[in-house]
């Protein structure tokens, strides 16, 4: 079974990060949210393995608490 | 035939019991004369189990309501002998189209292969389905129907169920061995017993407008997200018989349900969709909300729940009436086996376990569709719109678009009645699956597999081409003594004692291995062996409801005996 790779895997991390920020340049928050959502879907399909995706979602959400309702 | 099923008044008669001090006793009482209750009552009567159907009204469905009847439902009605009439009255379809804004996103075909007697769906107004079932019910000698007989009291004891019935001529009492509540989502029987159904109510409202018009549109399911004629919402269109079209508009939670069903509101919506110059007549309107819920248990001693009384789903997968008819299909043979002493009472427990799992599956699909149609959070809406935005140019995203996953037969995969596979098989016909249909030839005539199985256990054996196969010899000898004389009147043998009927399948151009006298089917188009991943010697065991419950690569009389015992809780 494939597991989520959390070791460095990007050959050029700074280039990647710059490209990611660039992908959102000039967009308002709503547009950026749409870009991010599409990005998640495209990458998820590329990865394909639901176990890997579940693990990524679990890690993405870790330590983010549900706000107390008022 | 020109019966106006919407105006049909079902005959009321006063109960003979009301003048008697003695309380009458019935084997089975079915409460509710909708599609599920009628199907169950007909099924029981065909098994020779006397059944009384009680309904509080004397009318069929008011409005078209459920309109999409799935292939499996039609196959069940075929088994009952009324599938052809219902299919012929309905409009058959298999293709759906999904649009986003002003463009077609994709087309899907629910039945892309040939070799099935029935289409993926027929569309038919519920009152026609009920009317045709009702007429078929009239022809069953063991079925009595009483209209305007309202069940107002239900009391269960370990020995029987006591029922109080109210009629225009006063109340009377009955007792029965088993009572089945097919009395709809607001089930009065459920209420009388103080039982609950639980789940999730969706915060959205939908408008149904049935319009009559002559339109030259293809017979297909059309679904729109955010179309130009109904911005921000979804819309659905279905063809029905009599030039009636079902149009469904998503209105949102804040819509006023009373105002929205007024013609002055509805007509402009329909006109925006169809165009200014298309004449139409509004036939029926309804604004609805829906919930996905089910009872924790469908069996409560001698009382069983089937259809909407037991479980509810959103309408977008056509899983309401269709799953209810599958409930009836599952329950009828079990009640018959228990009441005729062929199986212990605990066989009825498996109605609950099998159909509760099926309801969970239907609720899961229905909830997923609803979450796509009515996103519950801002982020959920963003992802939904992202999927739709990608779908036009990205094939993968089309698979994520969920405008309803349409009803198919539930595979009862984990049922205790199944004998797990001991050998390797490919394909969908796993233990628990509803039998796939296939064309066969019987006595030089074209036939369908599903016409040859059901209402009893059937062992289907794929013969060796030669006489040399030990498996086929064993199959033939196990059944040959029973079928040596008149094949229609089998005598007794060890296998016959289990009431299993054989079906020997041979490939095209190959004669039967020996003159066995067994019922024979020719797999002329090789579709049967392909759909069942069959090799010479492969043997399938079908339950009376046509579900697979065991299979082997070679016939094994002891294995068959154990599998039948297991499937009837006689193990």
Total count of domains of chain B: 3
Number of contiguous helices of chain A = 3
Number of strands of chain B: 28
CATH class of the largest domain in chain B: Alpha Beta
Percent of residues in helices of chain B: 25-40%
Radius of gyration of chain B: 25 Å
| Major β-sheet annotation of chain B | 8 strands, mixed
SSE order of chain A: HHH
Structural classification of chain A: mainly alpha
N-C termini distance of chain A = 43 Å
Instruction: Kindly provide the radius of gyration of chain A, computed on alpha-carbon positions and rounded to a whole number of angstroms.
Output: 15 Å
Q: What does the overall shape of chain B look like?
A: globular
**Strand residues, percent of chain B:** 25-35%
The multimeric state of the shown protein is: heterodimer
Please give a handful of descriptors for the protein shown.
heterodimer, A: 70 residues, mainly alpha, 3 helices, 0% strand, globular, B: 571 residues, alpha+beta, FAD/NAD(P)-binding domain, Alpha-Beta Plaits, Glutaredoxin, 3 domains, eight-stranded mixed β-sheet, seven-stranded mixed β-sheet, 14 helices
